[in-house]
Fold this protein.
Amino acid sequence: MDFFDFISDPILAISKWLFELLNGWGVTADWSNFILYFIGAALLGTSALLLTLIFIWAERKIIGRLQDRYGPNQVGPWGIFQSVADMVKIFIKEHIIPYGVDPVPYHLAPIIIVASVLIVWAIIPFSNSLTETNLNVAVIFLLAVGGIGELGIMMAGWGSNNKYALISAFRASAQMISYEIPMAIVLLIPVLLSSSMAMDDIVNAQKMPFILILLFGALIFFIASIAENGRAPFDLAEAESELVAGFNIEYSGLKFGMFYVADFLRAFTSALIFSTIFLGGWRGPGVETFPILGGLYLTLKSLVIWFLGVWIRGSFPRYRIDQMMNINWKFLTPVSLALFMLAIFFGKLFENYGQNIQYLSILIINLGLFFISLKLINRKEDNLEIPEIGLRSRPVAKPDNLFSKDISRG
Amino acid sequence: MIPLSWYLILAAVLFLIGLYGAIVRKNAIAILLGVELMLNAVNVNLLAFWHYHSQLSGTIELKGMVFTAIVILAAAAEAAVALAIIISVFRSNKSIIAADMNTLKG
Amino acid sequence: MSVQQLIFLSLAIVTIFSAIMVVSLRNLLHSALWLVLTLLGVASLFALLEASFFAAVQILVYIGAIAILLIFAVMLTHNIMSVSDSQTNRGWGIAIVLVSIILIALISQLSTWEGFNTALINLNSPGQETVLSLGKGLVDPQGYALPFETASVLLLAALLGGVYIAFDKRIEKKS
């Protein structure tokens, strides 16, 4: 293998070389494929888990700056070794196992939750030639492993032998199950536009990235994936001041570290999925000659989406559980159903006039639905009666001059 | 390659384990677990025969797939209704032993 | 022994072991968790049979919805049967005998069919062919549109019925 092959696509070159090596040793093609898949899976999982350390540090720094403070800055220049220090701390903490705990769910839950996040990395196409497995039902697979995550949360809540952990686990799994529905419905539109459920085909069909066609759909998918992840503003289930820190209250040490890792890794994984389905994945200038650039483009796009998620996390207050359920069942689900039906109907109607007209019609429907739903929400807010509690009208405190730095205002 | 007989024997064993569970257990929810095992064994059987017939005829047969889809749908509907009934009976009788649910009243 | 046969054997052992655990454990929550493992094993068998759509749908529907519903129900009716009571009724010996007889009869009668030992080779259906034909068949009026629509009416009826049956009427009586 010459140098150019290696530079343009290192991973494919290495795997070809390993395949030849194993064949030279007399291993049949079947088994050497199996061994290569195994090595690839192990490497992917390990590098995903190690990348989480960088993401945890980056997220803490960014949220710190958003909240007008430095993030971690003591351990190493700019605090980059903070995650390593946290890791060491979590490793050496004592495993406190409460009395009366059900050992099977209690110990399995962190493993299942981390597994359900890592498994998604298997179907993401990292470049032209590099997907761990080109599953032909990848989109349903995405939704299915969300279900396994819910199972892990229920096991964590039940196994903790703690009423509050159980209530919090019920709430978290209700939230995750509910927000899968708009995700699934909106995910069907790119599937229909690229007539395939495989991630490779969805990326290949995006001569124009789907976000330019499906603006509203991408927004719904983004909100639903933040809620599915359990991040702010939907982090009722695991926030520190809610229900005594939620379903992972009874976990200490490495098991809590697993929940932590799953949370932050899931943020980046949702960003990867969003960029693959809506932003065009590894597409960009120059990927035909240098497939390794595809991985770079995918990483950059998903870093932008991830940063958007962190920005939202640092900016919005938390929703209550009934507000969260209302957002899903009274807004996101009907709107996504309407969007799906209209987009597919008009997309099929204009299919014969060429792809551009089809995309234009779907874009118009997206924008139209967006403005209609904004109008409906605003009208609902105008009609909302805020009940007056108490018989006399209470004085409302307001400052005299908002823009003066005078301390004695109000 | 895997012979068809292996799949059929596996489906038969799963079905009979589910049948044993549904016959022998006292708890109503445990009976439901046995029923779910039986439905899954039926699905394995259906898809094994689907593969066999698709292989024989060279085209993708529809019947096996549609039947499997309907069985999965029916299992979901039946599990939901059965659990609703069990919880409702549990509220009034405070017992989930299937043998105790023997009066039509209440 | 090819790779596929080895994978099938390990999946079969996991599935059957989990099924035995489902029907024999005292603790009902552990039974439900072993059922989840059985369902995962069955989903992997579907994937081996090249019905990849059904593997994903099995995980999505069975594990993501039905198993979670079962676990909810187990948690809501917990501590009623104490764990020291026997959880099988008196007829378990006869049940084992009956089940073994049925198994032996079934396998021996099936093995007389001449297609019993045909090796299942890979159907070379490219890409989305399987799912595409299933989709077309389910909405084709000459195909299976009627069972499809009937099944959706069934789901609607089950949804409404389930909500109505499990509705707690005491809340209404209080107010």
Observations:
- Residues 73 and 79 of chain A are 4 Å apart (CA to CA).
- DSSP finds 13 helices and no strands in chain A.
- The two ends of chain A are 76 Å apart (CA to CA).
- Chain A has two domains: 1-92, 97-381.
